[in-house]
Amino acid sequence: MVTTPIPHPDQVRLEKKAAGILATKPDPAERVETVFGPMEDWVFEIGEDWKLLLIPFASRWWYFDRIHDDWQDTGHGTDEVIFLVKDGLLQAVPVSSSEPSSPKGPHFCTQCGASVQEGDRYCRGCGMALRA
Known about the structure:
single chain, 132 residues, alpha+beta, 15% helix
């Protein structure tokens, strides 16, 4: 029997924290940092090579692209997916899914950060062999 994976405790904590702040309907005239605190408070590490950032006022998840030294949108909002790392690749499993082997979100090479497709054996960006 296949079950939905358990989310990382920091993902759960940050999503609850954002929902709690947004439920208070903060004044839009307030500075973002005043309402939500520093950006660093919204980052967590998953696996050995991945960082995720919750943009709390937008309820969106971003990942850190090490190659470009920049944050990129994962394409997912809060309560939509469970992030996990499998064989070095960042994956996003839909919350309603019971099939963690076929996540909705993109997969990324741990070497260069390039997007890889399900079933790829080698990274199209750097040629690194991907674990099966």
